[in-house]
């Protein structure tokens, strides 16, 4: 199980940062208000989170806006099962491999212990395939919650969103040996898009309680925002009356 | 003799008040208004009076309908002019109102069609005013054009 | 009339040819926008009797997108005026037979319902793909911005961008790449219905 004997060129190349071989960690500037506000993406906070959103959704934008801290952290070791033929014997071994996500994981200032999507306040659409792809395996199936680390709410939403992305034809299962799946034959070959607001809300007690919590937090944050805006208005009026 | 008959015709001592127009004159008043109708409706009193009553009712409704039609046309013209400049009708309207520029849709429509540069100047001003006061959702239209000076403007509240 | 004024007259009253790309657009949302240009409402000289409408050339109508389960729920009714000749054709059947009709019907029903509708429809030119006859292509001077953003497929994104994309979480330690996460034999994948508030006109065909 000596990893040095095997060819690790493929896994090494994409881990190099732009400034050499050190791993790069991204740190987000956290918003002053609570993460509940971000979840509902009120206008003022949406602007603050736009940087993260743009980066995750965009294709080919530079990453220079983030602050970089160079850290020496041990990389996550994952296993990969490899087969090789050694004369008569077929050797199947699990090899420790660097995580392909090494150096690209977003670190957010998460005080409340929220899941990654709630903390960033991302409203994931079915067209955000670069985000969706992270939660699926090669056969386009959602990972279990223990692996994704999402809360129950977001996991359920991601389940629907992945199904939408597949039906829209944006994400094809990467297993080439399978025949054309049932959801690409006949009428399914035509373009379909989806509206995320039509995801049916969950009727479980947990979900209802969560909705209440979010509503209360939203009302609090809204009151804060309104008070702030009123203060700005009075300031502006005073300035205009003086000038 | 002629004068005496005329006088007697005009000054009848048996009548103590002015009876108003006689049958001839009453009918003439109607037929004058129905002169442009079709067929017997313009010549025969009985038919003319019915058609005329209806026509006058239509005229009352039509005055209102004309105002509505013209208003609709004018707002459409102002809206299309505003969209040519890159914004919306409501942005233009609120931007001008909050600066107390009292131009109605009649004037704005004429400007948008026949005085495009004046309309553009007004539109740019309205857009800048709307954006600077934070009246609503302006993000979808992007940044307003530059070169507009908003000085000492008070909000109409 | 001076030459400047003549040019001004032409510029104001000329009939413009617009281009609209139907790729990944909803035909019913876009039809209102297209109808606006066809009837002349995009111009400040608009009057319903002015005959100031423009031409619109629609391309890529075969790549039109309908939401949710509309492809097998939305039905188009046709009656040939003979007894028993009522037909309800589902959207995907119609699209397979003629891939310009969905767009054409959408625009037809979005226009004002008056006698001007027919001549206005003559000014709408729909093409299933991007091949436009050169005589028409030479006239086009403007492109109308489409309403919906065109989604990007995963296979179209270049590799470098995919790799550089920030990840939201890292896989746990000793996670087996490419392995079976669920621990059970994989059941056959069945497309679960996404419930939309829609009226069932056609059943999901197998």
From TrEMBL, chain A:
Any one Gene Ontology BP term: mitochondrial translation
One example GO MF annotation: small ribosomal subunit rRNA binding
GO cellular component: mitochondrial small ribosomal subunit
Entry keyword annotation includes Transmembrane helix: no
Coiled-coil intervals, chain numbering: 211-238
Record flagged with keyword Ribonucleoprotein: yes
Name this polypeptide is given: 28S ribosomal protein S18a, mitochondrial
Pfam families assigned to the protein according to its UniProt record, in alphabetical order: Ribosomal_S18 (PF01084)
Keywords, alphabetical: Coiled coil, Ribonucleoprotein, Ribosomal protein
Automatic annotation (TrEMBL), chain B:
Superkingdom in the source lineage: Eukaryota
A GO cellular component annotation in the UniProt record: ribosome
GO MF term list: rRNA binding; structural constituent of ribosome
Biological process (GO), any one: translation
One Pfam family of this chain: Ribosomal_L20
Keyword Aminoacyl-tRNA synthetase found: no
InterPro entries the record matches: Ribosomal_bL20, Ribosomal_protein_bL20_C
Keyword annotations from UniProtKB, A to Z: Ribonucleoprotein, Ribosomal protein
Entry keyword annotation includes Ribonucleoprotein: yes
Family: Belongs to the bacterial ribosomal protein bL20 family.
PANTHER family named in the record: 39S RIBOSOMAL PROTEIN L20
Protein name: 39S ribosomal protein L20, mitochondrial
Biological source species: Megalurothrips usitatus (bean blossom thrips)
Automatic annotation (TrEMBL), chain C:
InterPro entries on file: Ribosomal_uL13, Ribosomal_uL13_sf
Keywords tagged on the record: Mitochondrion, Ribonucleoprotein, Ribosomal protein
GO terms classed as biological process: negative regulation of translation; translation
Region called Disordered, residue ranges: 182-206
Main location: mitochondrion
Single Gene Ontology MF annotation: mRNA binding
One GO term describing the cellular component: mitochondrial large ribosomal subunit
Location in or out of the cell: Mitochondrion
Protein family (similarity comment): Belongs to the universal ribosomal protein uL13 family.
Name this polypeptide is given: Large ribosomal subunit protein uL13m
């Amino acid at each position: 199980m000596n990893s040095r004997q095997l060819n690790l060129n493929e896994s090494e190349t994409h881990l190099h940062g732009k400034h050499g071989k050190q791993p790069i960690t991204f740190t987000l500037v956290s918003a002053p208000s609570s993460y509940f506000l971000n979840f509902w993406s009120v206008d003022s906070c949406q602007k603050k989170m736009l940087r993260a959103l743009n980066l995750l959704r965009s294709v080919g934008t530079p990453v220079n806006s983030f602050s970089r801290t160079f850290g020496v952290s041990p990389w996550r070791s994952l296993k990969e099962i490899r087969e090789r033929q050694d004369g008569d014997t077929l050797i199947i071994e699990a090899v420790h491999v660097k995580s392909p996500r090494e150096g690209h994981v977003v670190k957010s200032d998460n005080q409340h212990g929220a899941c990654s999507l709630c903390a960033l306040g991302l409203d994931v659409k079915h067209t955000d395939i670069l985000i969706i792809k992270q939660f699926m395996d090669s056969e386009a199936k959602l990972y279990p919650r223990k692996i994704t680390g999402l809360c129950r709410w977001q996991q359920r939403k991601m389940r629907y969103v992945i199904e939408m992305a597949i039906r829209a034809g944006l994400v094809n299962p990467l297993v080439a040996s399978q025949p054309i799946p049932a959801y690409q034959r006949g009428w399914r070959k035509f373009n379909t898009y989806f509206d995320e607001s039509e995801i049916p809300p969950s009727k479980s007690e947990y979900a209802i309680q969560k909705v209440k919590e979010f509503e209360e937090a939203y009302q609090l944050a809204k009151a804060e925002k309104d008070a702030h805006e009123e203060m700005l208005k009075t300031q502006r009026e005073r300035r205009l009356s003086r000038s | 003799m002629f004068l005496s008959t005329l006088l007697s015709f005009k000054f009848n001592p048996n009548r103590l008040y002015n009876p108003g127009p006689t049958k001839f004159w009453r009918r003439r008043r109607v037929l004058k208004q129905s002169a442009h109708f079709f067929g017997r409706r313009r010549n025969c009193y009985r038919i003319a009076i019915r058609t005329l009553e209806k026509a006058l009712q239509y005229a009352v409704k039509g005055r209102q309908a004309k105002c509505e039609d013209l208003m609709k046309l004018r707002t459409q013209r102002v809206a299309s002019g505003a969209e040519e400049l890159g914004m919306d009708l409501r942005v233009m309207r609120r931007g001008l109102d909050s600066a107390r520029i009292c131009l109605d849709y009649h004037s704005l429509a004429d400007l948008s069609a026949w005085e495009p540069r004046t309309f553009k100047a007004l539109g740019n001003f309205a857009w800048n005013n709307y954006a600077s006061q934070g009246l609503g959702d302006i993000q979808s239209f992007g940044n307003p054009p530059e070169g507009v000076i908003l000085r000492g403007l008070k909000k109409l509240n | 009339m001076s030459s400047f004024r003549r040019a001004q007259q032409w510029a104001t009253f000329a009939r413009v040819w617009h281009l609209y790309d139907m790729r990944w657009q909803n035909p019913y949302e876009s039809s209102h926008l297209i109808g606006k240009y066809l009837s002349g409402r995009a111009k400040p000289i608009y009057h319903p009797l002015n005959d100031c409408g423009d031409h619109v050339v629609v391309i890529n109508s075969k790549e039109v997108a309908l939401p949710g389960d509309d492809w097998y729920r939305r039905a188009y009714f046709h009656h040939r005026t003979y007894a028993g000749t009522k037909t309800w054709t589902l959207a995907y059947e119609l699209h397979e037979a003629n891939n310009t009709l969905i767009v054409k019907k959408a625009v037809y029903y979005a226009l004002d319902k008056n006698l001007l509708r027919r001549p206005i429809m003559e000014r709408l030119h729909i093409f299933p793909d991007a091949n436009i006859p050169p005589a028409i292509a030479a006239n086009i001077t403007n492109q109308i911005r489409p309403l919906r953003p065109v989604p990007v497929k995963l296979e179209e994104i270049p590799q470098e961008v995919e790799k550089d994309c920030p990840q939201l979480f890292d896989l746990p330690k000793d996670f087996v790449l490419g392995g079976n996460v669920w621990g059970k034999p994989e059941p056959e994948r069945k497309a679960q219905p996404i419930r939309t508030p829609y009226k069932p006109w056609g059943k999901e065909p197998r």
